């Protein structure tokens, strides 16, 4: 096989992430909390609790965005239009009132997730794993979650800013661009493997947050 053919045959990071996290994705989307939330069995308070965990998680993720964003490779993955912290704060103000910060409980699995995001420092490969897991998820299944929250809990734009990307009118072209940026990262095969392993960790951290929420609300 020619060197060119070998290069062409090497799976891209985006394809490796999709394949490598498929099983973890299946587990995350079928946790008791998510299934109960999606089928209308929970309350708006349960959704507010999820939003509170996401506030802590995105605070840490977007602090990591700022750290990696000073490097060109990292900056290629940081998009202002993905920023979610402000939207979550709007949702929590609507759901819990202006004193929401006093009303929320950051759960143990969320603290562990936040610690993992802080620990990644400015490592672009690890950041890519975590940013992929959350932002492409928000632009994909997140849009299904949004419809279910509208349908079952009577929520409208005010409580669902997190799931609304005003500057991304069509998810597909944006997700394609994001995958192109992932695939352009200068990573060795070993680093691609490490990134996929970290994305699996990111999915498990999400599942653990859902398990904590399930213990309280299901
Ligand atoms: C209600 C639960 C969920 C549903 C129904 C769901 C559904 C989906 C669907 C249909 C896609 C494919 C979209 C496409 O091809 O454009 C997708 C992709 C994705 N989801 Fe989920 N999902 C859920 C939960 C999650 C969770 C909890 C995470 C991670 C925290 C996540 C992360 C992702 C990612 C990263 C992708 C992109 C896969 C890729 O193309 O590489 N999803 N999801």
Can you give a write-up of this model?
With 218 residues, the protein is mainly alpha-helical. It has one domain: Heme oxygenase-like (Heme Oxygenase, Chain A, Up-down Bundle). It is 72% helix and 0% strand. α5 runs antiparallel to α10 (124-139). The longest helix has 29 residues, at 189-217. Mean pLDDT is 96; it is low at 1-5. Protoporphyrin IX containing FE binds at residues 17-18, 25, 28-29, 34, 38, 132-134, 136-137, 140-141, 144-145, 203, 206.
Give a brief description:
InterPro entries: Haem_Oase (IPR002051), Haem_Oase-like (IPR016053), Haem_Oase-like_multi-hlx (IPR016084). GO terms for molecular function: heme binding; heme oxygenase (decyclizing) activity; metal ion binding. This protein has 218 residues and is mostly helical.
What CATH calls the topology is Heme Oxygenase, Chain A
Look at the structure and name the CATH superfamily.
Heme oxygenase-like
What is the CATH architecture annotation? Up-down Bundle
The helix/strand class is mainly alpha
Provide the CATH top-level class.
Answer: Mainly Alpha
H/E series: HHHHHHHHHHHHH
Largest sheet: none
What number is the mean pLDDT?
96
Number of strands: 0
The helix tally amounts to 13
Low-confidence segments, given as residue ranges, are: 1-5
The rounded distance between the terminal residues' Cα atoms is 55 Å
Structurally, the number of domains stands at: 1
The percent range for helix content is over 70%
Apparent shape = globular
Bound molecules: protoporphyrin IX containing FE
